[in-house]
Amino acid sequence: MLLAIWMWVDPTFSLSMVQDEASYYTGVYLILFVGTLLLIVGFLGCAAAISESQCSLVLYFCLLLAVLVAQISAAVWMYANNDKLVELVRYTVKTTVQSEYGSIEGRTETFDAIQSGFECCGASGPSDWAGSKYNNPQTESLGLAISSPEQSYKIPASCCKGDPKQCLDAQTAVASGPISELIYSEGCTEKLLYTSRKSMIIFLVLLVAIGSVEFFGLVLALILCCAIRAVNTYKN
């Protein structure tokens, strides 16, 4: 549940992980649902242990086993599709810079937050903005280059170090000229990939930790169920 809340409030997740925002929030809802299910299963396990009900313990065991299998499947899928996720991040950032920034409000605000927060600019660097739709709003087919080496282009204010008002002149660059020191020089793709890898490791570690606790819960449920059966047999 904490992971779902983090993904909901952190604007960098929606851009770095998926191109389709609807799919992204569907994933957030799914994680939130699994977290809620785990909470319910936990309460069910406590109630079953207190009431010493074999039926409730069996139900608890089955639900917990299903959740554990789902978590293992998710971890295996993430590991097997790591390369695809990396390519997806690269494609998403490049597409945002080339054609979505400045024309889609949500993407613009999110990428501004990324550039300011990660202290980066563009996909691979500030020069990426030269051939973007942000500078060429009438162009349909875009590349990360411009035709004339003397042509100037705008760089978003979120690329500025410190107060954007202090680097108004630096926001206008020439294709063949150097980038001002007041502009972040690193691209956002590698920084997002680094953050995504760290988040992935944290997520997998959490899955392993939670899975270990769940496995321990399965063992305890079996032991308790056998103990209750033995007591009932002895009473009869």
UniProtKB/TrEMBL annotation:
| TM stretches of this protein | 24-50, 57-80, 201-228
Q: What is its subcellular localisation?
A: Membrane
The record's section on Pfam families has: Tetraspanin (PF00335)
| The keyword Transmembrane belongs to this UniProt entry's keyword annotation | yes
Gene Ontology cellular component annotations, sorted alphabetically:
plasma membrane
Report the Gene3D superfamilies cross-referenced here: Tetraspanin
Q: Which InterPro entries match?
A: Tetraspanin/Peripherin, Tetraspanin_animals, Tetraspanin_EC2_sf
Q: What is its main location?
A: membrane
What's this protein's name?
Tetraspanin
Source organism of the structure: Aphis craccivora (Cowpea aphid)
